[in-house]
């Protein structure tokens, strides 16, 4: 599943709340993994079972800084395997060193799906600021062939939505998708994502029509108040 990448836009400096004591993004990102799971993903399972093979896979959440070098390299290899051609064909190109550096961004968290020690899929997310709005940005979501078409992709995206719904002040979930990846775009549309106002539009320059090779998509949070954590008092 070659789905998504992060296209940097205006970023957190575009909000007057960024870096202030009440900054909801800083509050979320400051949490260690255990507290993050308890507060925002209390129902995150430890195991996922393949619906066809019935093989068991471990699910875990880890901050980028805690990824081992082997885990980072495996995630990078999956990106290259599933989306490398899209990157190489894009205007931004494929830059392995820069991509690995991005993958170590301090506020990134990964939800890993592993069969034994082998990572078979992952999603990476970061609460951040985009044009004055606090969002959960999906940096990457990639699945290997053995877990494609199983519903796992929808499940992983559901965790991002859950974080956004539970975190006070978060307005939406955002992601970036290559235009040529029509299958991925249809997948996101089925999950309720639409083209975001920040997504680049067609424009003319010196008589030529310029069309971006990526689209920014988003889904607004349905604010329903904070859901009780698994061990909250009734």
TrEMBL record:
Signal peptide: none annotated. It comes from Metarhizium album (strain ARSEF 1941). GO terms for cellular component: cytoplasm; nucleus. It comes from the Eukaryota. Residues 62-222 form the N-acetyltransferase domain. PROSITE patterns: GNAT. This is N-alpha-acetyltransferase 40. InterPro entries: Acyl_CoA_acyltransferase (IPR016181), GNAT_dom (IPR000182), NAA40 (IPR039949).
């Amino acid at each position: 599943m070659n789905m998504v990448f992060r296209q940097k836009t205006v970023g957190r400096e575009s909000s007057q709340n960024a870096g202030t004591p009440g900054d909801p993004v800083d509050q979320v990102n400051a949490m260690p993994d255990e507290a993050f799971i308890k507060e925002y993903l209390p129902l995150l399972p430890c195991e996922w079972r393949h619906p066809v093979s019935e093989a068991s896979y471990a699910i875990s959440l880890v901050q980028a800084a805690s990824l081992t070098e082997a885990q980072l390299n495996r995630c990078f290899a999956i990106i290259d395997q599933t989306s490398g051609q899209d990157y190489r064909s894009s205007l931004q190109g494929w830059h392995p060193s820069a991509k690995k550096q991005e993958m170590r961004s301090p506020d990134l968290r990964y939800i890993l799906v592993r069969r034994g020690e082998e990572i078979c899929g992952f999603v990476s997310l970061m609460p951040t600021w985009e044009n004055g709005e606090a969002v959960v940005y999906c940096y990457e979501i990639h699945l290997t062939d053995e877990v494609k078409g199983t519903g796992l992709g929808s499940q992983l995206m559901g965790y991002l939505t859950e974080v956004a719904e539970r975190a006070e002040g978060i307005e939406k979930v955002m992601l970036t998708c290559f235009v040529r990846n029509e299958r991925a775009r249809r997948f996101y549309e089925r999950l309720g994502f639409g083209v975001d106002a920040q997504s680049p539009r067609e424009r003319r320059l010196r008589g030529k029509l310029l069309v971006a090779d990526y689209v920014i998509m988003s889904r607004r949070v349905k604010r329903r108040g904070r859901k009780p954590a698994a061990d909250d008092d009734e």
